[in-house]
Amino acid sequence: MTVMSRAAGSHGPVRTPGRGGRGVSWQQRSLAVGAAAYGLFVASLVCASSSLGIVFLVPAALLTAPLFLFRRPSEFALAAGVTGGAGLFFGVFGFMLGLFLFLPAATALVLAAFADGHERPRTAGILTGIGSLVLASAFCWLGSVAWTYVIAPAL
Q1: pTM of the prediction?
Q2: CB neighbours (10 Å) of residue 91?
Q3: How far is CA 73 from the centre of its chain?
Q4: Among 28, 76, 88, 133, who pairs with 69 as Cys (CB 3.0-4.6 Å)?
C-alpha cells in the first residue's frame, strides 16, 4: 500500500512506502540484526581458523540482505522469508561443508518474516522470544567452540 501525502513546498504527492509510513516492527528488526550478527560471527570464526572461510562469506553476506529493507515492511518480509528459507535449504543440504552453522540465523529470519508487531503483536512477541532463544543458544554454543578450538590453543 502506498500512502500519498503532500509535503510542504513540494509540487506533487510524496510516496511513502509501507503501511502508513511505518517501517518494519522492532521485533522483525531485532531478529534480522541478530541473524546477520550470528552469520558474520560464524564467517569470521571459520575465516580465522580454516582455509574454507571464503565458502562461509557468501551465506553470511546473503543473511544481511533483509537489513536493507527496514523502511519497506512487505518487501522485508518477503526478503527475510526467501533468505531464511534458502538458508534452511543450504544448511541442511550443505551439511558436509559445515553450512549447518547457519541454521539458527536462517530460522531467525524465517521467524522475522512472520513477526510483524504492527499487525499481530502477540504472535510477534512469541516468535521474537523463540528466535531470541535460538540465537542466544547458538551464540553461546559457538562462543564455547571458538574458545575451545581457536582462542585457547593460541594462548
Answers
A1: 0.80
A2: 20
A3: 14
A4: 76
Question: For residue 1, what are the contacts with CB-CB under 8 A and spacing of at least 6?
Answer: 18, 19
Residues in the chain predicted with pLDDT less than 70, given as ranges, are 1-21
Identify the H or E element spanning 15.
Answer: strand 13-16
Q: In which element (H, E) is residue 3 found?
A: strand 3-6
Taking each helix axis as running N to C, give the angle between helix 121-146 and helix 103-114, from 0 to 180 degrees, rounded to the nearest 10.
170
Q: Are 104 and 38 in contact (CB under 8 A)?
A: yes
134-139, Cβ contacts within 8 angstroms, sequence gap of 24 or more: 134/104, 134/107, 134/108, 135/31, 135/34, 135/35, 135/38, 135/104, 135/105, 135/108, 137/104, 138/38, 138/104, 138/105, 139/38, 139/41
For residues 44 and 139, is the Cβ–Cβ distance under 8 A? no
Would you state the pLDDT for residue 140?
95
pLDDT at position 47: 85
